[in-house]
Amino acid sequence: MSLCEAEKTFILHGVEENFRIDGREREDYRPMEVEIGIISHAFGSARLRLANTDVLVAVKIEVDTPYPEKPSQGKLDFFVDCSANATPDFEGRGGEDLATGISNSLSDAYRSSKAFDLKKLCIMKGQKCWKLLVDILLLECGGNLYDAVSLAVKAALWNTRVPGVKSVGIDGKNVELNVSERLNDCVPLDVSGAPVMVTVCKIGEYCVVDPSAAEEKCSSAALVVAVSQGNITTVLQGSAGSLHPTTLMDSLGLGVEVANQLNIALMETLQSAPPHFDVGFLK
Amino acid sequence: MSRKELLSKIGLRADGRRAQELRRIRCKLGVFTEPDGSAYIEQGLTKVLAAVYGPHQVRGGRSKAQYDAAIVNCQFSMAVFSTGERKRRPRGDRKSTEMSIHLKQALMATIKTELYPWSQIDVYVEVLHADGGVYAACVNASTLALIDAGIPLKEYVCACTASLANNDIPMVDISYQEEVLGGPTLTVAALPMSEKIVLMEMTQRFHLDHLPKVLKEALRGCKDIKVILDEAVRNHLVNVGSSSGWVKNK
Q: Is B47 in contact with A280 (Cβ distance < 8 A)?
């Protein structure tokens, strides 16, 4: 998307007046839709649509050996795929830079044991653990990717059920797992601490949250804050541009406040979600 | 029913269909706002999203541009979670490249490329769940997306798979389970109204004598799919039209 000077000025003036181009105030989000369990062959999945941004997340689980330096922890891997459906720029390997950026920031945000406890994914110390593979597919980019991805990942993890292990047997060096075959015999994950990311964009003199694609073009600097239960787990200064320390602290404060509200809203939505209907993309 | 049997004695398949029955097809046009045209199709459990960009100026140097026709660019991609075993890469492997080429071949047969010289049409397909007949679902989704983008087509291009059960009876629309059970699979992309075949591909083997009846069954499948797609397109137009008030009835 390319904007001319007049369009940029229009957006800038809108932000100054606290009346953005789509009628929102500076701290408002666009409407969001979340749907869980739409991929039948994954252990957990979610699709989140934030206005024009569309993200699909699927969680697969494998049995793996823990890292030697962390024998009592499971593994959590993020993989982002930018589909060319979103924009022709992503064709071939075009989206890889963005994909690596997002997956790295997610791993950073989930690294703290307070944010996500990997110890619960351990089956047998030093021998076997569960490996959660979180695959994120970007289907449409309408701005504010980080927020949408983090919310979708949280929803997908909330929906994930880890298979129940009945017993573990050791025969020499072989470890045999006896996984329960009953579908109901699964353990949900604890995602209360899973971080929520908020992008704070500086447009002109003011900071806004949830920038649309056009607003991202006008921003002079952007800050991504990952917040877990009121604590900041990651701060990432994306895009070119610089921030004054005072502005930086203000944006962090704004980010944390908004993230807390978002987190509450997401958890409420997930808990009150109606029983699953097979809708997906057919709506 | 033994494991190896594709069709039981009473004529039912592993998923309960009869030999000539398609899986349930559900589709939707205009799923996304960013692309010029987009569509979503479900054939049984196989789920595919397609997006069309263009016709637009040729990207990446004008040397590729043609003076008398548009170039069609296809990319086939499978989500890493689309298969039972997680895939390592979504695209770029040999199978995906082959799929892209085959998809382009099928679409070139129907797009009126001569109307858009010096331009390019991009078709991107993303497989969300692969459960047999992936190529067929991709062709059908692309057709719908092209229609949604308003690109002139000669006619619908539909694809369908067929197989041979018990060395005698042709079956249509093969699921992944049936592919794995080991029947031969014939994939046909066709222009169902003029009954022309644009692409035919076969895996494994059966006797040449069986080919006509299997092919006939696949073509019949294409025609059945065309009827379903046509209905979806008409419904979509009525929905779009009713919001702008140019459809009187409804």
A: yes
